[in-house]
Amino acid sequence: MSGTSAGSAAAPCRFAHYFVICGIDTETGLEPDELAALHRWLEADRQGRDPDTAPAGENFEQSPLKRTFKSKVLARYPENVEWNPFDQDAVNMLCMPKGLSFRTQADQREPQFHSFIITKEDGSRTYGFVHTFYEEVTSPQICSAMQTLYQMHNAEQTNATSSSSSSSSSMDSLASSLDDGYSPTSSSSSSLSRAAGSYDSSRDTLYVSKALCLITPMPFMHACRRFLAQMHSAVIAATTPPLPLESYVYNILYEVPLPAPGRSLKFHGIYEPIVCQRPGPGELPLADFPLAEAFALLGVENLVQVFTCTLLEMQILLYSQDYQRLMTVAEGITTLLFPFQWQHVYVPILPASLLHFLDAPVPYLMGLQSKEGTDRSKLELPQEANLCFVDIDNHSIELPEDFPQFPNKTEFIQELTEVLLSFGISANTGAPPRTRSSPGSTSSTPGRERKSATLRQLEDDGRNGNLAGEELVVLELLQGNATLERLQALTKRTGVTVARVDALRAGVKSQPTEGQGNQIGGEEEELRNAKLNVQLREVFASRFTTMFADYESFVIQSAPDLESWLTNREQMHNFDKASFLSDQPEPYLPFLSHFIETQMFATFIDNKIMSQWEEKEPMLHVFDTRIDKARLYNIRAPSLRSSCYQRCSILKESAQAIEKRLMKIDHTAIHPHLLDMKIGQGKYEQGFFPKLQTEVLNTGPSINKWCHKATTAQRRKDRHRQQTEHLTLDNDLKEKYMQEARSLGKNLRQPKLSDLSPAVIAQTNWKFVEGLLKECRMKTKRMLVEKMGREAVELGHGEASITGLEENTLIASLCDLLERIWSHGLQVKQGKSALWSHLLHYQAREEMLAQQADSPAPHILERRKSDSSIAMPSLRVSLIQDMRHIQSMSEIKTDVGRARAWIRLSLEKKLLSQHLKQLLSRQALTKKLYKRYAFLRCEEEKEQFLFHLLSLNAVDYFCFTSVFTTIMIPYRVVIIPIKKLSNAMTTSNPWVCVSGELGDSGIMQIPKNVLEMTFDSAFRPHTHISAIFKCQNLGKLTTVQLGHDNAGLLAKWLVDCVMVRNEITGHTYRFPCGRWLGKGVDDGSLERVLIGELVLPSGEDDSARACRTPPLQRSPSQGRRISITSLTGRDTKLNSAQIQEGIGEAVNNIIKHFHKPEKERGSLTVLLCGENSLVAALEQFFHHGFKSARLFQKTVFVWDFVEKAVAYMESADQMGDLQETTEAMKMTCQSLCHYFNAINSTSRNIGKDGKFQLLVCLGARDRLLPQWLPLLVECPVILQMYEDTAMLRDPSTLNTLISVLETLHDFSITLEASLVKGINL
Fold this sequence. Notes:
With 1321 residues, the chain is an alpha+beta fold. The chain contains 48 helices and 28 strands. β13, α12 and β14 form a beta-alpha-beta unit.
């Protein structure tokens, strides 16, 4: 809430910096609003016409009473303030966002109040408070000009009656909402066709709008509103005010100080005193806009949803007829963000001339004024994929898709509702939120249901019990009935009064206003509002205090000094996101993972780091103090990792602080007094604001008493704190940091209002282009660094730094960025997703070209061939084909969803950059769809953008496979026999079962007619079996079960490997085998479980391999898993140290697996049965020191040793030899025999090696493995089958192995169904 820089000693003392009057300049006369001409220029540009040929001059199609004319700043006091230079164009535009508007006596001319905000480039703010009223036009020239314009309009209407047509394009509909003058109350008079649209100078009195404005450094909204209302009351009162108006203006500009922090202040308006108060250093910052009104307008749930959108930095567009409502909701939401601050474009009231700013491809919070009765469905906005649309007047919102909910939302809403009810306010206002996926996301209101703003305000009063229901019904009937309105207008002109109606209206108008009425009642109402405001804000602040109670533990302080930190800001990792998320309750993660990626969170952490070298930022100071206090009372510790809702405990305390200040005023300002003025000037005339004396108001007192008083140490301290809290600009270094080191949005907080030439608009768009490119670079870099960090862990270096949730958040953020890039500079918007719309145009064009060329499919590029094989037919690369995959997915209902799915699929296939390059290569289509300044038509930036996306090919993403888990996917399976042997063919009936992280395919019988023959580069023939089957997404593939039924003459089958490819994503897995399947050969297995590895596309060069995702664990290589015979004959036998190291590493990998977050663990089967797995390491252990490999020419396996050992135990048990052993030993013996027999009796023909693998896996799962080993060693069989030097016979080695295996007892091992199928224990 910082204001502006204090350039002099007096700066902190001033309540208001400027008093401004805007209106019509009678000397220059009626000038058409140049902003309307600019709008026509923009429209011509949008429609692809040459903007320079757009018709110049005035628009005579509209009645002059409905048109806008140029307003001017008629006077400002003082001329300039050193610490806050006056921005004339901005103030004029925001005081009268639609220029001057004219009325006649037949129209309603109720005064209006609204506020505005000017955000400077450094993020500091200045507030404006505006009271607009209508003043009679006395200049004959103006009346005559209006008469002439009306006659020209009449002539134009006569000529154009035959050829009237209207365009309904997006910006036209936006413009239509701003065509009429600012008249929220004009519905009743619009029915009076003559009165509303016509003007006759001889018969009608002409009125024009005039605005009184106070510019202040802090948002004292209530005080300014009351002061301006009293000022207007003095102008229209029959008696002159007690003092000349100059006395009151002088007083508020020069003699009313800002209240010191934690103090209250009373100063004097024209008729009654005005009180304001300012929070102390430990309290929430000043916020004077009524939150109760924001909650009443939207409803609690809707407001919480909009608040969540704001936290996640989405695009938020507020929509209302009433400027003050726009400001109230915008300021209300940003106030609730404490301790965070909105970092992007913030324009609560968007002037008509800045409509093109809705095209901004950045997060924004903007307010757009709607026209009475505008149908929301006709309001087409440049981009809606990530937009939260807030229709304030209809109490409804539309939310973006894929929207995470705020943590503990239900309990949070309940607590807010209770606070509102305690103040007598119903919390049930507001329609339920709509997401864009719902078919009826826009609703048009029938004419009879529409109400004017006056009526809505009356309804609001009705909610508070100020207007009886019956009276409201009567008034509603009046407002909506054209005949009654005409009758009433007629009675007015003839001097007759309609008593009942006038009494009703008078009853409404006599509600206490700021300037008049019951002073005590007003003060009570103000106190009540202030207490409600602070209590609602405390509930929100309490949520953040709970959620981020331990945030300091995760801040990374990595730089020795401020300068080096600022210099290396972009390269530095400031917050340990992965550790923070792992410490949070599961339900909070969807929201928090998105939120910690936002600019506002990054800025908050930056401020925290900078606070070690500089004075702590005020909001951060308050927040940290609250966390320390909570820690002192031990609120957080017991609930760590708990999602239990904690209610705010300081509601009473916070309300009492405000009540104490408002009930006991700390300071009273100097009373307004007579000034040294020239007599006779500024003569009072009822209904007209006088011309004030400039000489008196342009210079303040030479010695300001308040500043003089403030020389004490306490005053100096207060003033310094106030300066740093609300008024200081950042120093040069911090400014440089903000401009360069932070992302776009920091230097585009608000569009430049001073100069709106086409050149400036082009420059703004160029800033957007540069910002989008920078954002793309930062996002792709972050995605790469985080992904690489994870892979470094898998390769054995460092700690993990990304979780699946975090990765998903980054990819969602990339989808949002691409949508914003494709929305920038669109000619005509079609559909909610600009990217999908472009893709559909491309698809239609390519398919049309393909039909003309008589080719069955559009041009498709050849994919690089896969490493593994000639056997796997190459998958073709096709942008259109990928689109068809997405279009066939019935799970996705919206265009935005389809675009996101297509991005995820392209990213997973490493084709995102290539596809987008192909899409943009059709330049004629791009030119047709986009304006000249669009990002996609800036060649150099576009190339850099595609290059950044290309860098993402260095890592593997499974962002499509892991998200769309229920879709049906075709898989191609190819079984490749050993090529060099004649036994490559089999007469048996093979089958496969493919398993992945999400499930398995079930057993798929492979028909015999799928035998294929391919030729390699030397034209040597190769046969293989290939089949395609379709099943629900299996996720990342882990295992393949391969078997056959041993039928026919050639039943033995030597298989090299099995290849499986996902036909949508193109991911290919290789499952090495290198073993026989068949009775009487190898270990007699008819079925094997194979472990998969992801295959590298062969087109990737060495550099890509060096920095890419590491491969999954592999199946054991054929050399190691062939029988003992071949092992004893190989040179690769491992020594005992290597075997022990292998066992230690295998066990360590399993322990690491369980220490990862559950969703990040990957496949345990790989660690149990793959290469370098537990089974492989124990096989090596059992093979060490094995005696002669062949006994009577029969191959011996480890399972044979286990079989003999179990047979000995069973016979010993029968003979009673185990009687002397302990009960525990007996039970262990029985368990080993039981497991052995269960495995041996299974109907599966898994072979001896397969059985040993199963025994190890079951033993590890049931924590029995360390108990079985001593039994095996104690069997006499070991003497026959193992040498003396065998590791199994060495007691110390065995004890070490047992202790290592016992470390697995802390974890619950679950075995994949493919491993334990058919085992009955």
